[in-house]
Design goal:
The chain is α/β, with parallel strands linked by helices. It is built from six helices and six strands, in the order βαβαβαβαβαβα. It has a six-stranded mixed beta sheet, with helices on both faces.
């Protein structure tokens, strides 16, 4: 099975790169702001309103995104059946480092595909997991498979759902061994980065050791 891979830093798309190969900061920020907000605010019928849901992409100074030697990246699996969610997540996290380490992304578009990738990549640090995919509870069933069948107590799991009615936060957090929960209609770039910072700050909630 062929899987898609992305690596950060270095996730900028060619149409928002300058002629000299360096990022055009204003264009990249504007483009990412529009795509990221639109994808999550309209995903799975969810609608966002009010300034709280607007992603504020601040202008960046010219930064040196040259890879730092000997820094093992956090390997993150994006699992969602919406391709726009994958694309906008990459744009939002372009150049971001979590606790000094770069990010590397793998992609799954179903719970079945995600299970296969998890088995093939035992060094995964975190999975950003949609709830409603093949079925309305595909993501929830995958959590149980990860913890019980695969025995992955150290893999951090953050649920991202566009339909919280199918997976209320209080109920899901109590019944399933997850490390984080977000709703797509309220997910901003800064919140996503904050979730990653918090989740990867220490050992997984269900493990005695860090990835």
């Amino acid at each position: 099975m062929k899987h898609d891979y992305s690596r950060a830093p270095g996730l900028l798309m060619s149409n928002i790169l300058g002629a000299n190969g360096k990022s055009n900061s204003s264009a990249r920020i504007s483009f990412a702001n529009s795509l990221f907000f639109n994808a999550f605010s309209h995903d799975e019928g969810a609608s966002a309103s009010g300034s709280d849901d607007i992603i504020d992409f601040l202008e960046e100074d010219n930064q040196n995104f040259s890879p730092r030697a000997n820094l093992h990246p956090w390997k993150i699996l994006i699992t969602d059946d919406d391709a726009n969610v994958h694309e906008t997540t990459l744009l939002a996290l372009s150049g971001v480092r979590i606790h000094g380490r770069p990010l590397e992304f793998l992609h799954a578009y179903s719970a079945k595909e995600a299970k296969s990738i998890i088995i093939q990549h035992p060094d995964l640090a975190l999975i950003l997991l949609d709830v409603v995919m093949e079925t309305v509870d595909a993501g929830l069933k995958l959590v149980q498979i990860i913890r019980d069948e695969l025995g992955k107590a150290d893999l951090r799991i953050v649920l991202r759902t566009g339909q919280p009615g199918y997976a209320p936060e209080e109920q899901v957090s109590h019944q399933l061994a997850i490390d984080g929960y977000t709703t797509k209609s309220k997910l901003t770039r800064s919140l996503l980065i904050s979730v990653l910072n918090d989740t990867l700050a220490g050992p997984a909630k269900n493990s005695g050791f860090a990835n």
